[in-house]
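Box 3.1. Reading complex inputs
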Amino acid sequence: MPDEKSDRSPWNWLLLVPIVIPLLPFLFNADEPRLFGFPLFYWLQMAFILLGVGTTTLVYQMTKRGRRRP
Amino acid sequence: MSGHVTEIVVFTVLFLLVSGMGFVAARWRRPADLASLDEWELGGRNFGAWITWFLVGGDLYTAYTFVAVPALLFGAGAAGFFAVPYTVIVYPLVFLVMIRLWSVSHVHGLVTPADFVRVRFGSPTLALLVAITGIVATMPYIALQLVGIEAVLKTMGIAGGGFLSDLPLIIAFVILAAYTYQSGLRAPALIAFVKDVLIYVVIMVAIIYIPARLGGWDVIFGRAAEKFAATPAPNDGVLLNANNQLQYVTLALGSALALFLYPHSVTGVLASRNRDVIKRNMSALPAYSLLLALIALLGYMAIAAGVRPIGTDGNTVVPVLFDQMFPDWFAGVAFAAVGIGALVPAAIMSIAAANLFTRNIYREYLNKNATDAQEANVSKVTSLVVKVGAVLFILGIDPQFSIDLQLIGGVIILQTLPSVAIGLFTRWFHRGGLIAGWIAGMGTGMVLLYNISNPVTDHEHFGGSAFQLAKLGLDTKMTVYAGFLALIVNLVVSVLGTLVARAMRAPDGVDGTKPGHYTADEGDPRVKDLDLSGST
């Protein structure tokens, strides 16, 4: 029997960031400042995609089985 | 039809070429024996990170999304952009959930969400409810893929009314049915690759070329704002207002919670090779969200370009925009991208729905001693039936109605969350409580949806998913996603039902899983042992 590995890791808490932030309309529901002609509402929510990719990539790298040996 | 000959030729050639690949796929990475459900459906469960990325992406970002999301922005503005936060939050949300599902499924040889519920809660009844929910929610989703193809065909002037004009649509789906019948999940995995390349090319060209022709993004957003200011509708505009923010947020969250409860999403995830492949994909899949955000904005480009939808079918705005803006040959390429984009998810969805039927209804209730070959056969036939059903569906009813049905699908699939997603983490719930919660959530969802009217499409009932809180007696104009309210009711009843069942000492099902089963990975002897169902 191999060791019972656990999915627990403090890094997982980071996943809350890209879940909570895109659900807060007061952060992005505005026209100004514009970026390349895009109102804030559009470019900031597109920027949240990068936030999501960045966070999940970081958590993946820090918790993947190949790296973490108990 | 005369002005569209080039478009039709390019569309047809590309469509046939890609379908041909579907048939070739039967020979790609071929196992010794395709006559078992695992092999036919899950492609032998050995897809690595790249194939999984294309497969799951092709599965979640469908032709319908590409056609309907811009149509939403075209019609209502900012509220339609919910698809972007939805596809941002979904991956971190399910990151830790899907790896547990992968592990327990591979230890116990599970293929569907209902299989899991059966093992976890020891309740064939609850598993049956989950299976039926999955099938019912998936059917309109498949039909919607046809709405995407239909919108393209209409724009080329070869669909609309009468039986003969439906012929191209029927041919498209005969091709789809034939190749999934022949090669299972291998076909969509292979053509998903081509579909993505086509769509990326089309979108990259569209977001550079079209704004340049229209005078830049400032002009596009400006014209959209003018359009919404001129309409009497209170909740449209390029920004959200005080009344639809709650709807925006709950719809994004509710849709995200629902996405991986759909049986076809689970199919894509289970086909990956190991847990790390899933994790890596959860961080790489949002690349599609960027694409989706840009596609969504095609709706505003259509406004700026003065596009008029064909008839009352709002889904034609993007195809018409392409038709007006692009040279004919490239419009043909774009249409082929949408058409092929419909085939991939439709194939995966029909396979997943067929599998629910085979494993959780046929084997559980109709033929308990089914052999692997019998199961694979029933699954193939059911997948055909599901597709024929979807075609009849689309030919028989108004496209707008199928979109409403899709909304209902989202609300009902969400009601399996306590059993499936929460069940992956805790066995606290009693099977009786979960069944009661499912019934309550389903009932609430239906009542709420029934009470949503939509004056724009002239529907008195089932007119959308935004429920007015004022109807509950609250003094506000705010709206909320109906599925979200229904899920809360479901959870509350599940908790109360569990407490009552425990107090009455009602017999609970046996949990067939152990904590270690949720973290087992590739290389674990338990995983390997039960992954050989192809040869039993």
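In summary: Residues 528-536 of chain B have pLDDT under 50 and may be disordered.
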